[in-house]
Amino acid sequence: MSDRTYKPVVGLEIHVELKTKSKMFCGCSADYFGHEPNTHCCPVCLGLPGALPVPNEQAIKWCIAIGLSLNCKIQNLSKFDRKNYFYPDLPKGYQISQYDQPFAINGSLDIKTQNSKLKTIRIRRVHMEEDTGKLIHTEINGEKVSLIDFNRSGVPLVEIVTEPDIESPEEAKMFLQKLQQIVRYLDVSNADMEKGDMRLEPNISVLKLKTQNSKLKTRELPDYKVEVKNINSFRFVEKAIEYEIKRQKEILENGETPIQETRGWDDKKQRTVSQRIKEEASDYRYFPEPDIPPIRFTQNQISNIKYQISELPDEKNKRFIKEYHLSDYDAEILTREKSLADYFEEAVKIGEKQNLTPKQIANHIINRKVETEKILPEELIRIILSATQTTSVSNDELDKIIDEVLKENQKAIGDYKKGNENVMMFLIGQVIKKMGKKIDTNIVKCNIISKLK
Fold it and tell me: How far is CA 188 from the centre of its chain?
């Protein structure tokens, strides 16, 4: 049966660790990566009796900044809730999260699809919670054991949940890359997936359409979904979605419905594996966190946070094209990382005094793959100027060198006369090589052509 009779339906849940100095509800350092296990802990993040949580104001502001950057509505009244479940890395037996009154709701993010069309992915919610501890599976004295490191427990975690608007692995990857870029521009997280700063969980299902020409209605969704947990790379997300679409199609072809469950990605076997039957919200027995009162925001407070958000990638990209007359391609590369965009603009300011155009500077940065960490903008401008400076040469000297090159390269001359235009660049290169100094290539080319007529 044709693939067109099926419609992939994918939503994403993304967890982003914030890089605040302290944890979400206590004063322990949130800089835990690479430190000795269980050295960044206190009674609060260990869930000891009587310990009370105190919310991290900076983390909440950064969560709202992410929501604003994703075009969300910021709620004036919000609260924390207890999400109850038992797992060894959750010392309290519950996670402080948000349920029915998250900080941000109803947002959107535009991505550019493979055919260069814009597609809007709706954001359901952006909420704040605490991270869990980390299980370490190892072997001691020949026995397999699981150890727990609570250094990560309580680190501020923002969860971004999309609507099921994604229809392919490629769209999922594009959305996630753009989200990572925005988070880094905001400077609220390193979003380093190898360190667990950004963890990806696609919810995947497949809708069987009645006919090949059927279109997915806005509210028409499958009656199941499969969640693949804790993926740490864009490539693995693509592969997991591809695998699940294929697996679920085969089940649907047999007249069955895939089980609603949580699965994991096994990179060695290149497949997803079943972990547990997927929980519903009711299984977590959410209720308001009694130790943290509701949080209210005035419109003035929200406006202040919005005012502090610097230029985001899409805005910067459009400005680079308009202000510096760059191509879409150049602007896209230069705005991928905020640090590179800032470097380029600093170089442009310096280059203006030397009559260098933004396009010349952009070409050099992109084509020469400039190591911006090692070469300061001032040095870059000196390098570009040096590369563009040419030495004057007498006509007699130039004629002599060109005659020598043409005499030594009779085959190349024959190829050029047969229509091979690329040979001209070779001949120009040979002349410059013999000259031993940089001269205007247009002058060399004109002289060569006049001698070959």
Answer: 14
Strands across the sheet containing 73-74: 73-74, 104-112, 118-130, 156-162, 6-17, 198-208, 226-229, 261-266, 271-277
The owner of tokens 């028409």 is 220
Report the half-sphere exposure of 346 (CA within 13 A, side-chain side). Answer: 13
Helix (H) or strand (E) holding 204: strand 198-208
Mean of pLDDT over the chain = 91
The rounded distance, in Å, linking the Cα atoms of 228 and 208 is: 21
How far is it, in rounded angstroms, from Cα 154 to Cα 53? 10
Report the DSSP pairing between strands 226-229 and 261-266.
parallel
For the record, the structure tokens of 274 come out as: 């079943």
Yes or no: say if 272 and 243 are a contact pair by the CB < 8 Å rule: yes
Amino acid at 267: D
Q: What is the pLDDT of residues 311-343, one digit of tens each?
A: 999 999 999 999 999 999 999 999 999 999 999
Choose which CATH entry (3.30.70, 1.20.1420, 1.10.10, 3.40.50) describes domain 395-452: 1.10.10
Q: pLDDT (tens digit, 9 = 90+) per residue, 355-403?
A: 899 999 999 999 888 889 999 999 999 988 877 766 667 778 888 898 9
- Assess whether pLDDT exceeds 50 at residue 435: yes
pTM > 0.90: yes or no: no
Is the distance from CB of 190 to CB of 337 less than 8 angstroms? no
Contact indicator for 182, 69 with CB cutoff of 8 Å: yes
> Tokens 């419109």 map to which residue?
299
User: Mind listing the pLDDT tens digit for each residue in 272-288?
Assistant: 999 888 777 778 899 99
**Residue 25, burial from CB neighbour count under 10 angstroms (0-12, 13-18, 19+):** buried
Sign of CA dihedral 303, 306, 310, 315: negative
Say what angle helices 338-352 and 358-367 make with each other, to 10 degrees. Answer: 140
Match 């090949």 to its residue by tokens: 212
Bridge partner residues of 152 (DSSP): none
What is residue 165's predicted lDDT score, i.e. its pLDDT? 95
Q: Could you state, in order of their start, the residue ranges of all structural domains in the chain?
A: 3-305, 311-388, 395-452
SS3 state at 96: strand
Count the neighbouring beta carbons within 10 Å of the beta carbon of residue 269: 9
